[in-house]
Amino acid sequence: MNPVPKTSITPVPATIPREQHVISRKNISKAALRVLYRLHDAGYDAFLVGGAVRDLLLGGHPKDFDVATNATPEDVKRLFRNCRLIGRRFRLAHVVFGPEIIEVATFRGTGEEEGGEGRHIVDGLIVRDNVWGTIEEDAVRRDFRVNALYYDISDFSVRDYVGGMQDLQSRELHLIGDPATRYREDPVRMLRAARLAAKLGFTIDPKASGPFEELGPLLGDAAPARLFDESLKMFLAGNGLKSFRMLEQCGLLKFLFPATARALKRGDEALRSLIEQGLANTDQRIAEGKSVTPAFLFAVLLWGEVRDLAHGWMAKGVDGNEAWARAAAHVVGEQCQRVAIPRRFTLTMEEIWSLQPRFEQIQRKRVFRLMAHPRFRAAFDFLLLRAAESPAIRELGQWWAHAQQLPQDVLAAALPASTGSSIGLTTAVAPRKRRRRKPSGKSGSA
Prior knowledge:
By secondary structure, this protein is an alpha+beta fold.
C-alpha cells in the first residue's frame, strides 16, 4: 500500500470513472443532488464527500450527505435562501430541506502557519480552522483515507487523493498524516477510529492505534458535550456492542467511561454479560425501528460501579436508600465530568438504579406502588438484564414477569399485606401449571 501523503506533499489524484464504481444518483438524497447541481450550475466545483461516498461505495445507504466546494460559506448562502451559516471553529453552511440538512463545507487549506485570522492552534489543538484551500489540500486535511473520497457531480467520477479506495478493498482503517499529530489536533479522532472500525468491520492500522494509550488522556481536554454526542454515535447507531468491544480492545474505554472500565477490571463476568446483553438488545431495537433512550444505556454501562459503591456503604451501616443515592450521585458526577449526560437522562438513570432493591420487597402495597411508578417498565427491563448476577435475581425477574400477567385482585390476594410478613418467591404468586381437561366422553372421530 502506498505511504500516506503528508500535508506538506501535494498528492497526485486518481480518478475512478463512472463505469468503474457502484455509486448511482438514485441512491443519493434528492436534496443533496439539488445542492450539488445548483453549485455546479453557478460555476463552482461541487462534490459529495466523506462518509456518504464511503458507504455508497460499500453498498450501504447513508442517511447524511455532505458536500465540499470551492464556494465560500457566504457564496453558498447567496445561492440558497434556505441556508444558515454555523460554527466558529469550522465555518459551515447548512442548507435546510424540511427535516433534512445538507452540510456544505468550503475546501480547507493546509494552513501550516499557526495563527492568523483563519486558523488558530493552541498546544497542538485546533481551536479555529477557516483557511480555504484546494480540493487536494482539503483531502489531506480529512481524518481517515476512506473519508477522503469525492464524488464529482460534473462527470460522476470518484476522486481519490490519498488511497481511500485501497483501504476500502483491504478493509483497513488508515489515518491521514502522522497519527500523534492528528490526535493532538483533535483527540476525538481516537474515538472516531474505534467507532468507524466497529461500524465497517475494518481493522485499524497499527500505526493509527499505536498512540492510543499514550494520548488517550487527551480526551479529558475534549468538551464533555462533544463526548456525549460521540457516545450517542458510538452506542445508539446500531453498532453499540461492536463499538464497546472495540473501545475495550483499543484501550480507550477507561478514558471515556472510567467507572465502567474499573468495574470490569475487577473480573465481574456477570456485569460484562449485563452490559453486552444490554447493548445487543439496543442494537436489535434500532434494527427493528423501535425507540431507544440514552438513559437506559448509560444506566447499564455504569451499573457495576453504582452497585458496588452502594453495597460498600451499606456494609458500613449506611441506610439502604441513602447508600444508593450516594452511589448514584458519585458515579454520575464523575461521569459527567467526562461525558456531559443531560439531567433529563441522569434523573432516569438514578430512578432505574434506585428501584432495583424495591423489586425485592414482595408486599402488597409496595408491589402495586412499584408497578405504578413511571419508570417501572425501564427498571423491570433492567432487572431482567441482571439475571446473570445470581439465581436469586433470575428468580426475582421471573416472579415479576408472571405477576404482571395476573389480574389485580388475584395478585393482591396472593401477596402478604404487611411489611413484616415474609414469604418465598416460590410461594408468592408462583406460576401455576395448567390442568389438562378430562375427555368429555365424546369423540370427534367415527
